[in-house]
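Predict fold of Cell division protein FtsI (Penicillin-binding protein 3); 591 aa.
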Amino acid sequence: MPATTPRGTRRGSPQLRLRIGFVVIAMVLSVFGARLVQLQGIDPNSYAEMAAAEGLVEVDLPATRGQIMDRNGEPLADSIDGMMVVADPRLTDDDAADLAAFLYRKLGVDYVSTLAKLRAHQTEQGVEARFEYIARRVPATIATEVVEEADSKGYQGLDTRRDPLRDYPAGDVAANLVGFMGTDEPLAGLERTFDKELSGVDGSTRYEVGSGNRLPLGESTITEPVDGKDLRTTLDTKLQWYAQRVIRETVENARAESGFAIVMDSRTGELLAVADDPTYDPNEPTASAKADLGSRALQDVYEPGSVQKVLTASSLLDLGLVTPRTKIVVPSDLPRDGRVIHDWFTHGTIRLTLTGAIAQSSNIGTVLAADRFKDGQLFRYLRQFGLGKPTRIGVRGETKGLLPRLSEWTSQLEDRIDFGQSLSVNGVQMAAAVNTIANGGVRVSPSLIKGSATSDDGRPVGTDHATHTRVVSEQAAKQTALMMERVVDPDVGVAPGAAVPGYRVAGKTGTAQRVGEECGCYDGTFTVSFAGFAPADDPRFTIYVVVQNPRNGGGGGSVAGPAFAKIMSYALRRYGVPPTGTQPSRLPVEW
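Predicted 3D structure, encoded as tokens:
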């Protein structure tokens, strides 16, 4: 008998079972697909935050800041090993108050803000915080000791990360130019001007943590930092150090307010030293007065006084209006347009050559010689010498000085400008003007940066961009230098203390009244200075020394002249410049 299917039992169709299976699978896949769309497309941020709450940490990887170096590669600013101290608030919450007090004692961090970071809290995104910066730019040894001591006391949740620390190994050497860093940003000097090139680009890393530790097999991504570029200056650290010590001694001995000394390569315009006093230590900038943190050689504005006579005389020579032997009858005083011009020394009527007017620094003799100018001629020469325009060497806050507009010139104003009053300069600007005479009548723009760099205002600066402008003829420059030699002659000049034994020196003193900030008038204080170059017949260095308000009664020859001689002597020896062996100028000073 054939088998029969038991009653009550029914086999479904295979096609039906397949259809039902496909429907179930489709439903499951639809649920997963919808979830994936939600995670990746609709609200990815909220789920990333949820993942972070489960233990994802993102940490900055600081780039190493570029060095600032002198011309020989000696570091003036460097980045050394440093660390940041960080905390995981989930682990520090239980001991937050005690730990905050501990960190205040050890690192000097603010107690209240540190306490808030150490307590468990949510970030601005609404997730539980797992990472907080406690202190930045901490020396590596100190950071390590603090974390180890905290661990030994039973405090959990502190750790360290690499965080390069800015250091100034040369101390106060060139500090007024180099500047300094704050915790997270540059605050002054080259550090600030060239921050974009020096800073580089920070990287970051993202990883999972569990129980306060990084999970070896957890999520981990990293973007490597790009280190900053080095910045090489034209400065010579050893010469800079020596110039700073000389100007400090000069300021102290003269009981003066301040001073600076500039050393320039006569041929290239490169600044080998820009020494300011008072100065400061960029490792501890807050220990010094704010007024001492910038460079007075570029940021102060003052009247140059009789150093200006070099520019007046060379312009006259270039126009062929005078010679070094031009005869001038110099009265005891000179009435001009309702005012009387005097010389710094008392005399009757004397007979000086133009050389004598320079050697004796006669205001009256200079004004009488300058009467030969036609309207506008001196103004145009002074502009070519670079007056009234910033040098743009890459120092923030540089003043452009003040050269009155030609439309403002009166005969009385021009008389005062002839001998260096009623116009203002900055130190580097005036040094470059005098260096034009040393460089055979060609003004080479001063440089502080070797090669090329871009300042924060987008300007390219450096030796690669130096300009050369013919201002006066080579003959006029040579004649001016011969006249300037007589200034340091012990028999006829006013600055024998500026002489350098064995070398021919050309120079010029300056003494000018200062304009007081409160009254806007001459207040009885003075700027004294000396500018010159050597060897006079084959110049290698131009040096300009300025001292503000000496209280010992000295002038440019007695205060600034000896400082010039010391710095020039050192520079000549350091660079192995031999004497030329030729005879010094013997141009007549009287007739």
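Residues 86 and 133 are 5 Å apart (CA to CA).
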